Amino acid sequence: xxxxxxxxxxxxxxxxxxxxxxxxxxxxxxxxxxxxxxxxxxxxxxxxxxxxxxxxxxxxxxxxxxxxxxxxxxxxxxxxxxxxxxxxxxxxxxxxxxxxxxxxx
Length: 105
Fold this sequence. Notes:
Distance between the termini: 23 Å
Low-confidence stretches: none
Shape: flat
Structural class: mainly alpha
Oligomer: single chain
Largest sheet: none
Number of strands: 0
Mean pLDDT: 92
Radius of gyration: 15 Å
Number of helices: 5
Helix content: over 70%
């Protein structure tokens, strides 16, 4: 039977692996959108903002309490008064934080 420490270590590794894989996907989409240019730059802004969060999570350095606070702050500031670029950035931030918080449950 596994000890609680073994189970928690496996969960952490799974979370870190999840963040690594998602980060690689976001990086690839970001790079492709940047190369394409034009309207694809909205996609670039959306995915580029996610990269530091995935990196921190993959390294086990994402503080979940801070992430939850940032998620709530980001959620409150999203509005129709933003530019498309601002909207894409903040939606990307909201997505990555929400995704990591949900995955960490």
